[in-house]
Design a protein that fits this description.
The complex is a heterodimer. By secondary structure, chain A is mostly helical. Chain A contains eleven helices and no strands. In chain B, about 40% of the residues lie in helices and about 20% in strands. Classes of the chains: A mainly alpha, B alpha/beta. Chains A and B meet through helix 7, helix 8 and helix 11 of A and strand 6, helix 3, helix 5 and helix 6 of B. Chain B: This is ABC transporter ATP-binding protein.
């Protein structure tokens, strides 16, 4: 797929012309790709600042960037404490969703009865607005962390299952036949061929799932909580404390971004063969 | 011509058991697929004997069931009728005493060339030291030296196919099954691979069953060429090439035996099944 025609076809000893980018190249590539979105973000910030500085809108509706930053300085402990709660719920929910999602996908791929029973329901369940189930969880599980974790699991479970099923099914059928002629059992075939082959699919599901998990946790907090960023935002809303509202939003987004980047890092570490190929592609998926 | 191969097999291995000492024996095999709309007969009344150490090529129009035939021998597919014997033992499930090469190299992209070759050893639980030694030998033999640590996407199509060939030969299989292994390569690379395959076949002494679309490739490589009819496929004719095992590429092409065999095959394929 990559430079099929350009690598010389000489069977004598020699080293392939590999185009492995050095750190300098990678930095230049990164800058090349990131300056546009960064510039747009900077423009938005500038606009925000300009609008508030010229007092085009009332400060209690849109606080200035400076005012929002001040909130961080003044109430850092308060924000930090609730950030932790939300992060913890998110991570726990995400981890459970990954564990159950991968397990469900493996069972479905290996048992067609289970797949025929479960997969249509799973696809259909995608339609249900899972956020609307959150109040029910609060009724059932109370005001602690559990209902928030449940909402996070529920909302991030689907992308994991569907990505993993797709990945496990995308394995080259000839590879499986080859494995049979090697006398490999189904466990060895799974561990050495099917599972690694499905990882790129799984990771694209994980990236969706991890950001959804944040949403799930916050929604759980909206419904009924006395801690977490969802609670912070509701409190700020009730007090018309827009600077705190903005601060809460910023922290929430930051959690999403950080977790997303962590998943990307894990991807680069675990499946470098995939990441390096994608890097050389013309388009990127995000 | 059937007699020739029997004689050859006998001469090499001596007769044992009930005369099933051919490397591969295919007897009156039929394969029918059931699709939603209708039943499709892919193969009918196919019989073929391949002697130990023999190189047999199978040519035929697209969809005549050539690949299906290889899968039957490997035990990846069950015949609807008839039977297949591999080294005197009836094929009843996936067989481990073969090497298989597909048209696409089918390499694991997260493994280097060497580790792709060694997958064969890992799955078979071969002793690691012995496997590594054998892999090194094959890497040398196929001209992969210097590319062992490259990943598949860093290799050209020809190099990828060399890796697949090494993987298929690692456990020294008595029978090598090749399904259009060079079909995706450019003409020049293909010739090169043909020359190498001829040398590898002579050096390893393995039995080879090769499915190909190229008449020249079939005649250059094989002792005998099986020509198949269009679907439902059956053996139309078996042509004895009559060339010595060691074959220089250009010189072989210029020999009268080569011309005679290619011409006969071309006639058969062009005329279809007119003279049944």
């Amino acid at each position: 797929m990559v430079s099929q025609g350009t690598v010389s076809e000489v069977p004598v000893a020699g080293v392939a012309e590999r185009t492995r980018p050095g750190p300098g190249d990678r930095l230049r590539d990164g800058l090349e790709r990131s300056w546009r979105p960064v510039a747009l973000l900077a423009a938005c910030l500038a606009a925000w600042w300009a609008v508030t500085a010229a007092e085009l809108v009332k400060p209690y509706l849109v606080p200035s960037p400076g005012r929002t930053l001040d909130v961080f300085a003044e109430k850092w402990d308060y924000i930090w404490q609730h950030t932790w709660v939300t992060t913890y719920e998110t991570l726990l929910g995400f981890a459970l969703a990954v564990a159950f999602g991968v397990l469900a996908a493996v069972v479905m791929v290996y048992s067609s009865t289970v797949e025929k029973t479960l997969y249509p329901i799973l696809l259909f369940a995608q339609v249900i607005p899972k956020i609307a189930i959150a109040p029910l969880f609060v009724v059932w599980l109370g005001f602690g962390m559990t209902p928030k974790v449940f909402v996070a699991v529920l909302i991030s479970f689907f992308p994991v299952v569907i990505a993993m099923v797709t990945g496990l099914k995308a394995v080259d059928p000839e590879m499986l036949e080859l494995s049979a002629t090697m006398g490999a059992g189904s466990l060895a075939t799974f561990l050495k061929i099917r599972f690694p082959a499905s990882l790129p699919y799984l990771f694209s599901g994980l990236k969706v799932a991890v950001t959804l998990a944040v949403t799930g946790a916050v929604v759980g907090e909206f419904v009924g909580a006395n801690e977490g960023l969802g609670y912070v935002i509701l409190q700020a809303n009730g007090n018309l404390d827009t600077p705190m509202l903005f601060a809460g939003l910023l922290v929430m987004s930051a959690i999403g971004v950080v977790l997303f980047v962590l998943v990307e890092l894990a991807e680069a570490l675990l499946i470098p063969w995939h990441a390096s190929r994608r890097g050389s592609a013309v388009t990127t998926t995000y | 011509m059937e007699i020739t191969s029997e004689d050859r097999a006998e001469a090499r291995t001596g007769r044992a058991g009930e005369g099933t000492d051919a490397a591969v024996r295919i007897e009156d095999v039929a394969v029918r697929f059931r699709t939603k709309k209708r039943d499709v007969t892919a193969l009918r009344e196919v019989s073929l004997d391949v002697g130990m150490g023999e190189f047999v090529a199978i040519v035929g129009p697209s969809g005549c069931g050539k690949s299906t035939l290889l899968k039957l021998v490997a035990g990846l597919l069950k015949p609807s009728g008839g039977g297949v014997w591999l080294r005197g033992e009836k094929v009843a499930g996936p067989r481990r005493d073969i090497g298989y090469v597909f048209q696409r190299a089918a390499l694991l992209e997260w493994r280097t060339a060497r580790r792709n070759i060694l997958l064969q050893a890992e799955m078979r639980r071969m002793p690691a030291g012995q496997a590594r030694e054998r892999a090194d030998k094959l890497i040398e033999m196929t001209g992969l030296r210097g590319f062992e640590d490259a990943h598949p996407h860093e290799l050209s199509g020809g190099m990828q196919q060399r890796v697949a060939l090494c993987r298929a030969l690692l456990h020294e299989p008595p029978v090598l099954l090749m399904d259009e292994p060079f079909g995706a390569l450019d003409a020049l690379t293909r010739e090169q691979m043909n020359v190498e395959l001829n040398r590898i076949w002579r050096e390893t002494g393995t039995t080879v069953l090769l499915v190909t679309h190229s008449i020249a490739e079939a005649v250059y490589l094989a002792d005998r060429v099986v020509v198949m009819t269009p679907r439902p496929g059956t053996v139309e004719e078996i042509i004895d090439v009559g060339l010595p095992p060691e074959r220089d590429y250009a010189a072989t092409m210029a020999r009268p035996e080569f011309a005679r065999a290619t011409r006969r095959i071309r006639d058969l394929l062009g005329a279809g099944s007119a003279h049944d």
